[in-house]
Amino acid sequence: MPGTTASLTLTGIGLNYGFVKALDGVDFTVRAGEIVAVLGDNGAGKSTLLKVMSGAHRPSEGTIEVDGQLVDLRSPRDASDAGIQMVYQDLALIDAADVATNLTLGREPVRKGPLGWLGILDKKAMRREAASELEALGVTTAPVSRPVEMLSGGQRQVVALARSAVRAHASGKGVLLLDEPTAALGYAQTRQVEDLIKRMATRKIAVVVVTHNLPLCFEVADRIVVLNRGRKVADIATNETDNDSVVGWITGSKAPQEGIIRASV
Prior knowledge:
The structure is a single chain. It is built from nine helices and ten strands. The protein is of the alpha/beta class. It has a single domain (6-96, 147-251), classed as P-loop containing nucleotide triphosphate hydrolases (Rossmann fold). It has a six-stranded mixed β-sheet with strand order 6-7-8-3-9-10, sandwiched between helices. The chain has a four-stranded antiparallel β-sheet with strand order 2-1-4-5, covered by helices on one side. Keywords: ATP-binding, Nucleotide-binding, Sugar transport, Transport.
């Protein structure tokens, strides 16, 4: 079950591109162990909101808190240091490297003694660590020695998710941002990714999923947030709404939830 403490809180977030207001007074919260789906039509502001959370864009107005502490995310590195991990649609994997190398990227163990002084990596330790991390996540995928370029789309997505989940969990804070995690995946691969998202939440990682996939939302999300033209028009527990209502908020045919939209300043 989701915790009571907010892992990530955005208050009054606005973002302007010249005279265009991409985000307008958006409030957003995700708690430890909670999965929140962010929905909206093209141009609704969902990817922009995700970029604000990940430090890729600085908001024109509003505040961001991680575990109740105000933060100024000037870059993705700042977000990562704060415990926020982003999985992009292109996954950012090294195709020619094996699964173990991709999972331990940026924190690779080196050999002991003089070889370590020369920066020689300890491949056996990397594979042991990667296998242990995948086992802890309950992930059954290809051998950790297999190159990523030989994996299926679903396996590649699982590796990318697992890498970010490990980093988020290791930070002790743990916020995971997913951008269209099941895009271009088949049914079986999508189910594998859904199961992994649920397992990450059980480890008290806060998960934010931006997607067009309504079945995915109703399968994994605890709460659904809908954006329309840069404004939040709905923020509701998944078990308190239905497909028709969500589609109505996305298209604008259904009135926003009462009191959900901030007055423009």
